[in-house]
Amino acid sequence: MNVVITGAAGGLGRAMANECGRRGYNMFLTDVNGNGLLSIQRGLERQFGVTVATKACDLTDPDSVDEMLAVIDQNGIRFDMLLNIAGLDFEGGFMERERERVVKIVTLNDAATLRITHAILERRRQGGHFIAVFVSSLASMFPMPLKATYAASKRFLLDFATSLRQELKDQDANVLALCPGGMVTRDDTIEAIAAQGFWGDVTTNPLELVARKTLDRALSGKAIYVPGGLNRVLSFAGKLIPRSLVAAVIHWRWNQTQEKWLKKENCMAR
Predict the structure, then answer these.
(1) Hey, what domains does the chain have and what are their CATH numbers?
(2) What's the predicted TM-score (pTM) here?
(3) What is the average pLDDT value for the chain, to the nearest integer?
């Protein structure tokens, strides 16, 4: 099986690559972090004996994507699976962040994901089963004041994945939307989870477990995966409670959390 993984040098991307390697899959890894890709490539090939190709790429830049696709086409690679992992978020209210940083969330999470998905679907193996995974978020299921752009960008991915799944249903393809809670991927993520206290701890998902169960569910034809029992309860409750009330409660909760976290961040910066 040939698998494309975007954002492969990050926490979840690396966990997905390790899980694919454990299963004996060959991989094409991409990320903006070229040095990180080479390190992962060597580790995967040494540990699992799989074939791993890499190409540093800025998915928000069409020219950079075209350069990566040219490498794929020159080598005649065709794919059986796409894991759309690349994404980002910036903490803080909408007007508390620079305009272009807010726009960048949508540019990477949504526009770049559409760009690479379209390209890889054109390069899927003919006559074989194809799987696409989109990393949405538990946040996609709620209106999220103080994380409004991020949550909305992830809602787009959830709805898009659901729609694309239906479009590809008769083409021997499956599309799964992964909707995790918190995940320990970077130092700032760890700090944000810690600032949430109890709720941060109980809604956080171990990367290795998420990677393994995501692939299991994608291979078995599932449509949505929300890791963690409590997270599944929260996602269900979000469908029953009026969205205006959900927004008010989340704003109250996140306002406290972000004040604590951003205050600590500012103190460390001095």
Answers:
(1) 2-269 (3.40.50.720)
(2) 0.85
(3) 87
